[in-house]
Amino acid sequence: MEDDFRDELDLATVAIGNPSHRFSRPLKIEQAGDSSDGVDSISSLPDDILHRILSFFPTNFAIRTSVLSKRWGHVWIHFVNSWIEFAISHNAEKLSLDFRDARVRDYKFPGFFYTNSSVKQLLISSGPAELIPSCTVSWTSLNLTLHNYDSVKYLDLSKSLYLRRLDIICCNTVREPMKIVAPHIHYLRLRGQCTLLDVSSLTEADVDSSDNYLFLSFSYYKSDSLMLVMVQAMLEKLQNVEKLTLGVDFLRLHGVPLPKLKVKTLTLETMIMRPVVLGIARLVQNSPQVKKITIYTTQFSTVLDKCDSFLELQNLNPNQGWRSIDVVFPTSWDSKVPEPELMVSFIELLLANTITLETLVVRLGSYTDDYRSRFEEQFQIALTLSHNNEVSIVLK
Fold it and tell me: Which residues form the F-box domain (predicted)?
C-alpha cells in the first residue's frame, strides 16, 4: 500500500473549496469581541496556535476569517502553502491547484513553489491574478494550463533563467489578454488570448486562439475589437523566430501592416477559405527567407464571413481584403478538406508569392478512396507546378 501511495505522488491535486463532509450544518462567523481588559485574546495567539485552530474548520471558512482583522488576513495562507510544500517535497511532476474562493485572488505563491525543479506540468483553476516570482525560477520546461482564469493579468518569468519551453492553454472567458514576460524561453506553444511583452530569445513558436471558442464573438462584436491589434502585436514579437506555426485565427490579416518575418519553416493550420487566403498570401510575401511551408487542412474553423463589418470597425478598406482574390475560394467550408481543384489553386497562389521557397508540404490526412482518386488527377498538375517553380511539392 505504501508503494501505491508513492506512485501517486507524481500527480498532486490541491482543492481550495468547501469540504462539506466536515460539518453537517453551516458555521456562523462572528466578529471577535474585545475581552474585559480590551484585548482580543484569540487574535493575540501565536500563528502556530491559530493554524491549529483553523485546521478544524472547512477551508473556505478559514479563508473567510481574513475579514476579521489585519491580524487574520493571511493566517489561512499557511494551509495552501503547506499543501503545495507537501507536493513539491515529494517531487511531484504534475501539480493541479483548484482555487474556488474569490478571496484567494490576492494569494502569492511561496518562493519554494518557483525554486523547485520537479514540476513540469501545472494546472491552475481560477485563483491569483498574477504569477510574478520574486526569486530565480528553477523550471526548465513548463506546461501551464489555466482554467476559468478570468482574473489573470500577468505572467512574469523574467527570473526563470533556465526555462526554455513554455506551453500555455487558457480555457477561459477572460476580457483582457494575459501579459507574458518570458525573455529566456526558446519554444512557445500558446492557445488562448495573450499579449507577449518580452520573448526576445524565442526561436520557435506555435500560436492560435481557436481553442478559446468565445474569443471570436468577443473580438468581432466589441467596438474596440482586439483581434487585428492582437495579431499585429503578436507577429511583431514573433518576427525573429525561425520556426513558426500559426492557427487559422492568426491568418485573418486583412489590411494589417505586417513586419518582415525571419521565419524559415512556416506551418499553417487552416481551411482554404476566402477570409484567410489573402492573409496567408500576405504572410508569405512578408517571409522573404522562408524555405519550407507545411499546410495542415483543418476540419473545424471559427472563421466566419463577417470580415467587412470587422474591417469597418478598424477603419480599414474591405476592398484590400479577400474581395481582391478570385472567387474560386469559398467564404465557408463544411467538408474536412478543400476540393482538389481548390487545393491546386491555393498551391499556385503560394508559389506566386514566394521566391526562396524550396519545399511545400500539403497534409491531407486520411480520406476515402474516391476522394484520393480525384486528387490524383490533380497531382500531375502539382508536379508541373513544382518543376516550373523549382519547388518540391509533397502531398500527404
Answer: 39-86
Does residue 287 lie within any of the structural domains?
A: yes
Cβ(196)–Cβ(233) under 8 Å? yes
Specify the amino acid at residue 378: Q
pLDDT means per 10 residues, the chain with 396 residues, are 45 46 44 48 71 69 64 71 87 82 71 85 72 78 71 78 85 68 93 87 87 39 56 90 87 76 93 78 92 80 43 46 51 57 81 89 67 65 68 81
- Specify if 318 maps to a domain: yes
Per DSSP, the residues of 328-392 read TS-S---SSS--HHHHHHHHHHHHHT-SS--EEEEE--S--HHHHHHHHHHHHHHHHHHHHHT-E
Q: Between helices 77-89 and 47-54, what is the axis angle to 10°?
A: 90
Phi and psi dihedrals of 107, rounded to 5? -70, 135
Q: For the whole model, what pTM was predicted?
A: 0.70
Strand partners, 95: 12, 122
